[in-house]
């Protein structure tokens, strides 16, 4: 299985961020709507710190969201990502 090709971000359209934590790694996909399709504009992968790795799964998900959201804000030029979803879509 291959990841879809990335599109260029359109700063006028809202973004949606999908985040998942697996084995101490925060994974994320930043998308925008293109018609009815959610087009990926960025993929993210960041290692959680040692303290966060010891937390329960629900708190690791929050830490993963904070890490990935910080990276996503660089592409949205600091703009707000209006909807953040925790999704188990990465395996």
Automatic annotation (TrEMBL):
Pfam families, per database record: RT_RNaseH
Reverse transcriptase RNase H-like domain residues are: 10-76
Signal peptide coordinates: none
Q: Which UniProt keywords apply?
A: Endonuclease, Hydrolase, Nuclease, Nucleotidyltransferase, RNA-directed DNA polymerase, Transferase
Q: Which domain of life is it from?
A: Eukaryota
Which molecular function GO terms apply here? endonuclease activity; hydrolase activity; RNA-directed DNA polymerase activity
Kindly provide the name given to this protein in its UniProt entry.
Reverse transcriptase RNase H-like domain-containing protein
Taxonomic lineage from the root? Eukaryota, Metazoa, Chordata, Craniata, Vertebrata
């Amino acid at each position: 299985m291959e990841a879809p090709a990335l599109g260029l971000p359109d700063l006028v359209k809202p973004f949606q961020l999908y985040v998942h934590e697996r084995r101490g790694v925060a994974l994320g996909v930043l998308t925008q709507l293109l018609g009815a399709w959610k087009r990926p504009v960025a993929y993210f992968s960041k290692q959680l710190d040692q303290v966060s790795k010891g937390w329960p799964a629900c708190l690791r998900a929050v830490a993963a969201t904070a890490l990935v959201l910080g990276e996503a804000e660089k592409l949205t030029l600091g703009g707000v990502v209006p909807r953040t979803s925790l999704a188990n879509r990465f395996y």
